[in-house]
Write a structure and sequence with these properties.
single chain
Length: 155
Amino acid sequence: MGKGTTFNPPVQHMADDFNAPKKLANKERADAKIKEQEKPFSQRAKHTTTFNNPKGVYGEDIAIPERPAPPKREPAMQHDKPFKPSHPPRCGYNRTFNKYPEYKENPLKPTTRKAPVENEPAKFKPTYNDRSRPTPSVATNIRNLKASFPSAFRR
């Protein structure tokens, strides 16, 4: 722009407060803090009284007499043998009527090495070459390529 090429005089620079959004947020936060109540909100249900006592509504406000205890009955039969279950559980922790068995230490098993036999071929050892081969992508599957680009596979 050259001299005298505009109809209006050039606009003078006006200073802008770059912290205006921060000052506005601080002012809004202070106004909201003033409106807060002293005690924080509690979701605990308050104990309120009702117009009628629930026992009075249900008719339980009168004293209910206690039921007499049922008399003890004699056993129907007298057995001469003690109880023995028909299918007792296997022995072990918490599955038996017997006492716990005494602790027995496991004996050590001696290790013996086999001597190599002469004139015997070595045993077959499979290779593990295919274990680390990545699976091919589904995007390069022929069926998916035909579905994505049908014009390329037209006959």
